[in-house]
Amino acid sequence: MALDSKHRDVILARMKDDVDNKRVQRIVNDTYRYYEDVATGTLRVPITTTEETLIAYEKVFMLGQTSAAGITKFDTLPRVSMFVGQPDTGKTYAAEKIAEECNIVPLFKMCRDNLNLETLLEDFKLVDGKPVFEESLAIKFMSDDEEHIIIFDEFNTLLTGVMKTLQPIFDDTSKTFEYRGKIYKKNMKCKFIVTLNDKDKGISIVPDAILSRSHIRWFEPVTPGTISKWTNIPIEWLQNLYDIYKLLGITNLYGTRQARMLFAMKDVSKIKNHLYGLCMMRNIDAKAVETLPMQTFINKL
Prior knowledge:
The chain is of the alpha/beta class. 41% of the residues lie in helices and 21% in strands. It has three domains: 68 residues, no CATH class; 143 residues, 3-Layer(aba) Sandwich (Rossmann fold); 76 residues, no CATH class.
């Protein structure tokens, strides 16, 4: 089926937007050229003739994320995806976006001190004022036959021993899991996306048994140019802010959150006060804020 010019322009615009926003990457080597989804690295469209490429791209990346072979984006997701990078690089956003593109409402779990397999699976309701155990939403997701996504945010805040308690549910070889003496059939259509901040705590604590079961995606630090696209903040202002954070040695904190917050202040004295506070929190001599190079950048804000 031939594409009219308007239809072609729509697909081309989507392709450009996907590539610019790093949802899709163009792979070129000596023998094969194709477009590939960045999230999973598995959905691919061969680059052949312009017409064939556009038609295939629309089928794979635009029409319900279903390929001509009937393979959906959800089908290509690994059992466990591990998103690793410094804070504010879009890991959590990417996880939620994947769920949205799969037309799935994910179960979102913020990792915390008391999260382990026991607390993940337990749930209670009050009966005559007393707590009575009932199966949690997590158990239902992991034991029914529907497509689900469970997101574990800030996974590296857990202790290694706690991480190991979650290994049985990540495993894709065993067919069952046990909880409170009951054997549940494992739902292989339940996928997990785990995010880890590489600067908060050494990610080396993640057990090999979990790493070996995970598809890992590294998130590069976000550049001022990318943040400018995301926030509409002038790139010159963002570059000055980046140079300030670089001089202080805290570029791992630089990102959209800090940029939006400080840009909204529009008050140099408040921004300097904020920088003093960051120095104190990171054991940096606050006098660094008063150096001439630093003052030059701050005055440009």
